[in-house]
Design a protein that fits this description.
single chain; mainly alpha
Length: about 60
């Protein structure tokens, strides 16, 4: 008798492993947001998403 493979479970496991690896990488590099703030020049008015001091402060608080 041939067993059926549960692809939903395999996809869930693969996605959860990918997410945990991503979180570990982000958590292991806490200085990247601070370094990004120092390298960012004055930001002119832009349409859509742009880095501002307010957003950079949020990123710093999210890392710690």
């Amino acid at each position: 008798m041939k067993q059926s493979v549960d692809t939903k479970r395999r996809k869930f496991m693969r996605d959860s492993i990918s997410a945990s690896v991503s979180v570990a990488v982000v958590a292991s590099v806490p200085g990247s947001v601070v370094a990004m703030e120092e390298e960012t020049p004055e930001i002119k008015q832009q349409q859509g998403y742009h880095l501002s001091n307010h957003i950079l402060d949020y990123y710093k608080s999210a890392v710690s």
